[in-house]
Design goal:
217 residues, mainly beta, 5-stranded mixed beta barrel, 16 strands, 0% helix, 44% strand, globular, disordered N terminus
Length: 217
């Protein structure tokens, strides 16, 4: 079993693909310095725009124009830097300046038919892949040309806390290996556990056409 350890948002530098959110500056642009990258949820309260990075961190955006066109509840991939200020809302934990924020692709949750095996996909168990803030976010690797839209669906299984990830390549399976990010709003699927950890299992077909299971606490 592939065991996923949930990590807090942290800095990352790496390559980008057509399936990654757009990075308009470059994660390590020397003109801007190395900034933190994170996955978060854009929200508003009392006229304040903020980004919830996890269950505890709520960062007020001090330059809200950078996310003016992003709707509340949207999961984003962002680059930011912390700023020191006392002028933050009492429900926020800190303040940030957003360098850029790009909405993530949202996958579908399906109940209408039995899940098929799907096209091959690998799940990368780095800091991007996480279950937090009601979203299952997956950093994946596929074979793709970069010119065809790929789809991802999540099917709740028969057994409790078991799901199947189905990748639909729309016939585009012969390209080079490339990475991307997809997230699912699973807030309605998550059980009430109190302080007790419950293991969720995600089944999929990997790039070697082998059945794999990822487990998430």
């Amino acid at each position: 079993l592939g065991v996923l350890v949930l990590l807090s948002a942290c800095a990352k530098e790496g390559d980008y693909s057509p399936f990654f959110p757009e990075d308009p500056y470059g994660a390590s642009d020397p003109e801007r310095g190395t900034q933190d990258l994170a996955i978060g949820t854009v929200l508003s309260r009392d006229g304040v725009r903020y980004i919830r990075l996890d269950e505890k961190i709520r960062s007020q955006v001090m330059n809200p124009r950078e996310i003016a066109d992003i709707q509340d509840g949207t999961r984003v991939f962002l680059q930011y830097r912390y700023v020191v200020t006392s002028a933050i809302a009492d429900f926020c934990t800190d303040a940030i300046l957003v360098e850029w924020a790009s909405p993530l692709d949202m996958g579908e949750i399906r109940y209408d038919m039995q899940a098929r095996s799907g096209d091959p996909v690998d799940i990368l168990t780095d800091w991007i892949t996480c279950l937090e803030d009601g979203f299952l976010t997956l950093h994946y690797s596929i074979r793709a040309s970069g010119s065809v839209k790929h789809g991802f669906s999540l099917y709740p299984g028969v057994d409790p806390h078991t799901y199947r990830l189905v990748h639909d390549a729309n016939g585009d399976t012969k390209g080079s290996q490339t990475d991307g990010i997809v997230c699912f709003d699973v807030s309605a699927l998550l059980p009430e556990t109190g302080e007790e950890a419950v293991t969720l299992s995600l089944d999929y077909i990997n790039l070697n056409n082998t059945e794999k299971r990822l487990t998430v606490d």
